[in-house]
Amino acid sequence: MWKQVYRICPNLKVIKALIYSTRPKQWSKNLIIYFAFLFTVEQAWDLHDLDAVFVLFIKTTFGFLIFSLLTGAIYLFNDTLDVKEDQKHPKKKFRPLPSGDLSKITAILFSVLFGGSSIILSYILEPRFSLICIIYVVIFTSYCMLLKRIALLDVMTISAGFVLRAAAGAAIINVPISPWLYVCTGLGALLIALGKRRNELDIAGIKSKSQRPVLTKYSHDFINQLISVVAPSTLIAYIFYTFTANGLPDNHAMMLTIPFVIYGLFRYLFLIQFKNLGETPEDILLTDKPIIISILGWLITAGLVLTIFR
Prior knowledge:
Layout: H1 2-8, H2 12-21, H3 35-46, H4 50-81, H5 83-86, H6 96-99, H7 104-125, H8 127-145, H9 153-172, H10 179-204, H11 208-211, H12 220-244, H13 258-274, H14 281-287, H15 289-308
């Protein structure tokens, strides 16, 4: 195997195709791993222990990089299975695998290499973290091979992936986080997944079966009904989190962050309904200025609440 890796690596075109196929843009989803750090770091601040804060941050950052390597391996594996469907998609057909810039054999080889390396590194960093990584691999290998073709289970699996990211962040630094935060993360991710399916329906049109077979089991009305349930549930779960979660200020000052969540939620619904941007949620996170300002406002407010009112 290593001889083939050595033979492939000097080819800059292959390296570029491999990096692109691991979808670096979508690594932004893995920033959820920092949730546990953000909501427990104030304990170290109370002790004025800046060294502890730095160690927690470095461990979390290593965990973020390892998990990004793991998700990159899953993306590579998924693309090897979807070549025929992606060749019929107006945007995905330009990806390295469907366009022919990257062979299936090379993609599978590096998928195994990246996935195996990430599991080993995660165990070195923190054994509990490696267990979550293994669970992620099992679930999303099943997703790539079967679950993505089953309506409702497809979006629920995507949601589970985000919850695992939050759990991974807690495992890396050995801290508990509020169950409400897991609920908010899961519901928020479910909303994003539904928005993605809605936009995919718009793009695919009558070609939905050939581009993504599960789309034939969805309709705009059905997805809109699901969104109308999930969106308010997400907001309610977050409100409950700000008032009931352990470790937050007793004066409920965390409620000051609620307006940022409301605006961010409404802005996302606007973008998927009127701008048809749901298919690439990572682009929304990285390019939409109102969303970015809302996230920054939430981070600043939450940081002030957790440091001043503790």
